[in-house]
Amino acid sequence: MNTTRRRWPPVARPLLVALCGAYAWIFDPYAIAAPAGPIPLCRESATDLCGFDRPEDLASLPGEGTTGDRWVLIAQKNPDAPLVWLDTQANRRVIAAATGASRCGGHPSNIDAGGIDIDRRGRYAAVINHTAPQRIDLFAIRKTKPTPQLQWLRCLPLPANFAPNDVAVDDASTVYVTHMFDKPHSPAESRELEQRFASGAPTGYAIRSLAAGRWEKVPHSDASFANGIAISSDGRWLAVAGTFDQSLHLLDLQGRADPRRVALPLQPDNVTAHGESGFTIAGHTGVPRSGVDPCRPRDATPCGFPFAIADVAATDASVRVIHEDNGHRTPGASVALHVGEQLLLGSAFGDRVSLRTPARPFRHVTVQGGGGVPIEVIETGNPEGPPILFVHGMSQSHLAWLPQLRSELAQRFRLVAFDLRGHGASGKPWRSEDYADSKSWADDIDAVLRALQLERTVIVAWSYGGHAVMSYVRHYGTSRIAALDFTGTLAGLRTVAREPGSDTERLLAGSRLRASPDLEDNIAGYRAMAGGLTAAPLSPELDEIAFVTGLMQPSYVRRAMTRLPTQNADLIPTLTMPVLLSMGELDREWPIAECRALREALPAATLTVYLGRGHFPSAEEPARFNAELAALVERVTTPRQSPMR
Predict the structure, then answer these.
(1) CA angle 435, 436, 438 (to 5 degrees)
(2) Rounded to two decimals, what is the model's pTM?
(3) Which of 57, 169, 270, 394 is the most exposed place for a label (fewest CB within 10 A)?
């Protein structure tokens, strides 16, 4: 992000902002559709580290001994702590450089932190310091216990007319900096600059440090609003992001390959190294050139706008979008780092550093189901991947599958879920006959499969969803089904005789409350149901979702659904495809002995038991559930794979 804007000459600053705004509103179709604006304040959670002040840039300390890997250096706008170490294992924060950390000019001075970097060997750290005169402050890193230390080494003054944004460190004597544009000094220069932004024409480039405090331009690094910069972990590639030409410029520092310009599906901001010869880019999506202006005032924190994260491989210039966010609840990310299978996100307009599982956005579609009932469908994940259809249980919605829809599964598979009739955002017809006929439920699933053109689909059904899926099998057969994953359900394929006792009575009492015409009874029944789905308490987020979506189902729907036939043992011979039974050991609905009996009755079934888990294994142990589901999908999409049993 450009933090030098407040030092532009007075005549240029308001003029350029006005010109950018006018251009966006007239010519940019996203100016209204994707505004930037305030979002909720940070709340302490496992995925948000609060209390940061516009954490613009992140840099990871390469692993060496005991102090590497876990430490991330963060640049923020807090003048008392412009550079902070984050211990990613303990979520512990330590000030790395405070007031007076710079010794440029021979005396202590403050750091107004912009872009930062740590070299690939973890020996040096550099920060763009916008305190006049603007310069690069270079530090040595001492990997001491318990916290790494920064020792100031020297400063590298930058040309006064430059607008520096990001820095990349190769060694103690070689530093690269992006220069976004020459600062305009007149209205005519401001207009010319805006025209170059609008056309994507080059306005800046990268520079490289030389001896005696001199700089030289890096050949072939010209870009429109040259933004992020990074050196690959193998030391071969230099990546320069061009925000307004929406590209990543790859330069081979070893001279073995020609310069490459890689088109990006986002407006890139910061760049970080990933893997041996790859990069991770954070950038805006659907945001006009002036779209982030509402986020710039200090009192606008936190502020969100649509963004995406992409990985680029320098060897073949391939681009893969790994995460997208509409910015309604998350600050628009200016930088992203890989931390294991998750992403650590910083934002120049945020109040937090966020840990996110890479995820694609939900695309909502309304499909006309049986009898014209509107069925709400969401789709996410890899549109080119093998399809998985998720069918939720009684009184729930597609949100029951969030641990799957927002998981690593989205990187490999096309994920589709929908709200059953009478549930969630789908239609809720009044007539009881709209729920009592198995053909209606079958028609809904058929409508979803056809509307989204799903073939060779792995269908995952939880609890009552198993009955809906077997209704589909009864009326439409199995030609579109590659495999089934039944979790927390035997789908009417076996009848379970329930002995009188406390668990049985508790289940019946809760069911009566949820079917009561009295709303107060419904509230009590659904609160009890949400807490009884699992052997141990659900996460607060999923517990609240289970409760609220339960209340979205009218009691008349629940009463009518008791008339749906649930005996499907006659369909066992038709289930010749692989079937995975994912069952909780402590599920009060389905004894494990009955699950084993069904496994033996099905031609190609596998039973996987979740020890110590209840009726909701997909939420209780999502990492294992997702891994086993992925293995099932891979099995049926890989030819001549040996059978699983």
Answers:
(1) 90
(2) 0.71
(3) 394
